[in-house]
Amino acid sequence: MEHAVEATLTVNGAKVTRRIQPRVHLVDFLREELGLTGSHIGCEHGVCGACTVRVNGEIVRGCLMLAVQANGCKVETIEGLSDSGELAALQKAFHGRNALQCGFCTPGMLLAACDLLRQNPRPDREQIRAHISGNYCRCTGYQAIVDAIEDVTQTDIVHGQG
Ligand code: FES
Ligand code: FES
Q1: What is the side-by-side order of every strand in the sheet holding 5-11?
Q2: Staple 30 to which of 8, 36, 83, 146, CB 3.0 to 4.6 Å?
Q3: What letter does residue 76 receive in the DSSP assignment?
């Protein structure tokens, strides 16, 4: 029988302390313990990107990180980043370009796109494709997603760019 370990994480700006079984993955903890179901679970082995969240400023696969490994870390999910408005330009562009159908991949896709634009506010299409290549979409064929991200690069409303 595993022993739960106490861990404290800052999730979307709020401190959360819980006793957590060491085997629980971060995405399961966020979804099941905290009710943050915007991060999705697809492959559960690091391939599809549906579970993407941000930990200490870097995007990670929530299915490859244990929740207890996030002890002391700052975790941001699609919910927090939506509420803060950080994703507003991307969300508007995804909507405008019909860059989602079922929406299953969309939270992870938005986090990956945002990560790219924080590193490089003016990526070209090849760089966009390369950066989202770890996020699978079974619906759109990617074209509209690349179009949407490219739209945001044409504006000055990329996060951090004013
Ligand atoms: S569920 Fe984590 S990468 Fe697919
Ligand atoms: S919109 Fe359905 S998986 Fe991407």
Answers
A1: 14-20, 5-11, 74-76, 52-55, 58-61
A2: 36
A3: E
Ligand 1 centroid – CA 155 distance (Å): 31
CB of 139 closer than 8 Å to CB of 100: yes
Q: Which residues pair with 55 in a beta bridge?
A: 58, 75
Cα gap 148→114, rounded to integer Å:
12
Pairing of strands 74-76, 52-55: antiparallel
**Predicted confidence (pLDDT) per residue in 2-35, tens digit:** 799 999 999 999 999 999 999 999 999 999 999 9
From the CA of 102, give the closest atom in ligand 2.
Answer: 2
- Cα gap 84→101, rounded to integer Å: 24
Report whether residue 66 contacts ligand 2, using a CB cutoff of 6 Å.
Answer: no
pLDDT digits (tens, 9 = 90+) for 33-45: 999 999 999 999 9
CA 38, 44, 50, 53 dihedral sign is: positive
Nearest CA to ligand 1 atom 3: 46
